[in-house]
């Protein structure tokens, strides 16, 4: 198995600290820095790492996608996408800058990852991409009148394109989504090298006299 790597960040020391942080998270199953660090010095080291401007979400996602792309070469890959939420309701007094999650009350963020799975053997190949949605301006209610690229649902459209780009060397790419991905624009924009397997949310017309 590959050595856990969080990113390169343009600096060898930052990369080493990121790798140590990721390894600790995998071992401890925690996101609390005090629990992850072995002592005060390492706690401070992890804090300084996360505060560094060079440590970006873009680098982490790009690095993860690069590793996944290498493992996906010549395979039939299932790119499984879904949306989860990180709910910070019990930490509301200490959190600032967050919007609400699915229930419209608790604060937190939505996370939409795409995970690559080997279609033949079922093994996880890695992260293809992810989008983090923070409703800091509140949830827009007139979503039906807005263009597809201005809606939160754009994450489904972008996910298929991300899978197409990252997994370009795969033998076949099948994007798998729940009913939230049943969006006309996604099928209309489907990249040529991507198949879509989506749970139906609408009883769509499939021919002149037939529906799903």
Overall morphology: globular
Work out the helix count. 6
Strand coverage percent: 15-25%
The profile of the biggest β sheet is: 7 strands, mixed
Helix content: 25-40%
The SSE string, one letter per element, is HHHHEEEEEHEHEEE
As for the number of domains, it is 2
Low-confidence blocks of residues: none
| End-to-end distance | 43 Å
Describe the model.
- This protein is an alpha+beta fold and 212 residues long.
- The protein contains six helices and nine strands.
- It folds into two domains: 55 residues, no CATH class; 138 residues, Transposase Inhibitor Protein From Tn5, Chain A, domain 1 (Alpha-Beta Complex).
- Strands 1, 2, 3, 4, 5, 6 and 7 form a seven-stranded mixed β-sheet that branches. A two-stranded antiparallel ribbon has the order 8-9.
- It is globular and about 70 Å long.
Outline of this structure?
By secondary structure, the chain is of the alpha+beta class. It contains six helices and nine strands.
């Amino acid at each position: 198995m590959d050595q856990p790597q969080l990113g390169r960040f343009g600096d060898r020391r930052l990369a080493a600290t990121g790798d140590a942080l990721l390894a600790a998270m995998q071992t401890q199953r925690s996101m609390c820095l005090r629990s992850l660090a072995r002592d005060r010095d390492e706690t401070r080291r992890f804090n300084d790492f996360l505060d560094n401007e060079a440590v970006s979400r873009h680098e982490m996602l790009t690095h993860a996608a690069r590793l996944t792309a290498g493992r996906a070469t010549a395979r039939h890959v299932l790119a499984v996408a879904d949306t989860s939420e990180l709910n910070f309701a019990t930490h509301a007094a200490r959190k600032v800058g967050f919007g609400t999650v699915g229930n419209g009350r608790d604060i937190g963020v939505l996370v939409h990852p795409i995970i690559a799975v080997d279609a033949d053997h079922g093994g996880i190949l890695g992260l293809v991409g992810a989008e983090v949605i923070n409703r800091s301006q509140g949830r827009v209610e007139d979503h039906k009148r807005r263009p597809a690229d201005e809606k939160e649902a754009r994450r489904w459209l972008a996910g298929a394109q991300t899978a197409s780009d990252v997994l370009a060397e795969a033998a076949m790419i099948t994007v798998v989504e729940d009913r939230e991905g049943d969006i006309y624009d996604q099928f209309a924009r489907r990249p040529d090298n991507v198949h879509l397997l989506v749970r139906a949310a609408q009883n769509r017309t499939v021919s002149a006299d037939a529906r799903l």
